[in-house]
Amino acid sequence: MDSFPGGISRFVNKTVAFRFNGRELSFRLSHALFSSFDIDAGSRLLLKSLAQVTDLGAVRSALDIGCGVGVIGACISSQAPDAKVVMQDRDALAAAFARENCRENGLGGVSAVCGLAFWGLEGQEFDLVTSNLPAKAGEPVLRSFLRHAAGCLAPRGIAAVVIVAPLASSMREAVAHLGCEVVHLEQAKGYTVIHFRAGSARRETDAQREDLSPYIRAASRFTPDGFSYSLQTAYSLPDFDALGHALELSFEVVKDAAAAGHVLVWNPGQGHLPAGLLARPAQEISSLAIASRDFLQCAIAALNVASSGMPPLRIRALCSEADLGDAFPGGSFDLLIAVPHPIPRVPWQGELARSAAALLAPGGELLVVGTSTEMHRFMDQNHGLRPRISRKHAGFRAAILRKP
C-alpha cells in the first residue's frame, strides 16, 4: 500500500508508454524526480545494451541502484519474471513511484527500498547490477558505486552502468583500477555504457558498503550571527561551504524560538540548523528528530547531530516526511523546524499546517521558511497556529507560529 498521504497520484506529472524488448510498459513520472517528461536518454541506452548483449531471461537476481521511478528495474523484471529484482533510491518518493509503476505493470518479485546505494543488502549477491549513475553525486561517491557493484556480483555476474560523457573516462579508469573485466563498452551522444564483471575486485562486507565517508565533502566551521558550530558536509546537498539566504534567515529567526524540549527538523539539509542549536550555550534540547524523503539528508544530519554531543538514543532519523503522523503521537514536539522543498503544482502549505497543528504540543512552535510567495500562501492557511514572528530577506520569508 502506498505510504504517501493521499497516494502518490498528486505527485504524478504524466504517464508515458515505453516498449522494451517486445513488452509494452507504462510509467508514471513526477516533477519531483529525475526525467519528469520522458524516459531519459541514458536509461534508454543502458536498456538497449542490456537487450542486445545480455541474456536477461537467465537473470535470477538483479539490483538497480538509483532507480528513480523504476524504469530499469521494471524492464529487467519484464524479461525475467522469476527473478528477484531489488531497486534502491535515496529518495523515498522515487522508491514509492518505482513500487507503484511495477504494480501497474503487473510485475511481481520486485521490491523498491529507500536507502543509500548498496546499504541494507545483508550479504546478498546479484547476477546483474545496474545503475544510471547520477552525475551530480560527486566523483568519490561514483567510484564507491563501482566498487560496491563489483563487490556484490555473483560468480559470472555483470554490472552495467551508464554515465554522462564528461565523466566516462574517469569511470572507465575506476573500473580498471578495481581489476574488473570490461565485457562491453558503448558510446552514444552524451553517454557511455560500461558492462563489467568483478574480475579480481574484492568482495565487500556490509560494513564496507555501508560507509558514509565517500559522501563526505569537507569538514568546516560555520559562524552565522549568534552561532558557531562544526559540520561535515556531503556531496550533492546545498550549503556545503556557505549558507544560502534561506538558512541565513532561519538562523536569524530561530534565535527567538523556544528551542528546548523535543525538536523535529523537517528537511535538515546538511544539518546546519540542528547542529547550530545544539552548539548554543545552555541549550535544553532533550531529543531531536530528523525527517526528510532524502536518505542522505537524514544520514548526514544525524551524523552532525551526534557529533554535536546529542546521545544517539535521543536522535531519530525518519526517511519519509509523509510518515510523521504514524511515527509520532500527537503533541510530541515543542519545536518543529520546516524547510519545504516545493514541487511544481503540488501545494505543501495545507499538509504542513495540518501536520504541525497535530504534532506540536500546546505552546509549541513552528519555524517555517520559504520563498515570500510560498510563505504568503502558507500564512493564509487556517491552521489554528498564531503568528508570532515574521521576517523577510532576499526573496525569502521565515515565520514562527505558536500553537495555543
Highlighted features:
404 residues; Rossmann fold; 7-stranded mixed sheet; 18 strands; globular; disordered N terminus
Task: Describe the protein.
The chain is α/β, with parallel strands linked by helices and 404 residues long. The chain has two domains: 8-209, Rossmann fold, CATH 3.40.50.150; 216-402, Vaccinia Virus protein VP39 (Rossmann fold), CATH 3.40.50.150. The protein contains twelve helices and 18 strands. The chain has helices at residues 41-53, 71-79, 92-104, 139-151, 165-178, 206-209, 245-254, 272-279, 295-307, 324-327, 349-359, 372-379; strands at residues 12-20, 23-30, 61-65, 84-89, 110-114, 126-132, 153-164, 181-188, 191-197, 216-222, 229-234, 260-266, 284-291, 315-318, 333-338, 360-371, 386-393, 396-402. The strands form four sheets. A seven-stranded mixed beta sheet has the order 5-4-3-6-7-9-8. A seven-stranded mixed beta sheet has the order 14-13-12-15-16-18-17. β13, α9 and β14 (315-318) form a beta-alpha-beta unit. α4 crosses α5 and α8 (272-279) runs parallel beside α9 (295-307). The longest helix is centred in the middle third of the chain and has 14 residues, at 165-178. The radius of gyration is 22 Å and the shape is globular. The model is unreliable at 1-5 (pLDDT under 50).
CATH architectural arrangement of the largest domain: 3-Layer(aba) Sandwich
Averaging pLDDT over every residue, what do you get? 94
Number of strands: 18
Q: What is the fold-level CATH name, i.e. the topology of the largest domain?
A: Rossmann fold
| Rg computed from alpha carbons, rounded to a whole number of angstroms | 22 Å
How can the largest sheet be summarized? 7 strands, mixed
